[in-house]
Amino acid sequence: MTVVDQIRNILRSREYDGDPEEDLRSYEAPNFETSAPKEAVERVRALKERIVALTKGSDHSYERTVRNVIKVEQNMENYEGEEVGGTTPEMEAERKEFLDKFLTNLNPAARKVIALRLEGKTLEQVGDAIGFTRERARQIEEETLSFFQKTRMFKDATRND
To answer: Which residue segments constitute the domains of the chain, with CATH numbers given?
Structure first.
């Protein structure tokens, strides 16, 4: 747990009903110091002094350092929750693994039809690539998707959606 988190946790304690984020951002926290228990005030002061000691030799003040830490926390939260095409990177990896497992269970013609469709090929292009008519490519795609929707893998994957 970072020093900033430790300060934040003390400021958010039940014994204090002030604005913990405001008191975190400011080195001086008169409201906290007059209304919180003495041991909590001393602990926060000691932690704030640690931040000041860490920034010695730089041109950063306590306030600027804490602002930067908060900014980094927010950027990390944004990155962790960042969606790429509506999904997180972890979700994309899970979907790719799921798709790979599914495709390995298909016959070669169905696997090729689905793979080409996922690449954005038209039914006509798929049929030409495999040596089928557009209609036969559509039928294979439809049969495969129907089969897919009945699998336990699909049901497990969509249960949470």
So the answer is: 3-80 (no CATH), 89-158 (1.10.10.10)
The string of pLDDT tens digits covering residues 114-141 is 888 888 889 999 999 999 999 999 999 9
Residue type, 115: A
Query: For the whole model, what pTM was predicted?
Result: 0.46
d(CA 157, CA 133): 32
Length of the chain: 161
Sign of CA dihedral 112, 117, 123, 128: negative
| Dihedral in degrees, nearest 10, Cα atoms 146, 147, 149, 153 | -160
Rg (CA), the chain: 29
With a CB cutoff of 8 Å and minimum separation 6, the contacts of 33 are 41
Give the whole-angstrom CA distance, residue 22 versus residue 12. 11
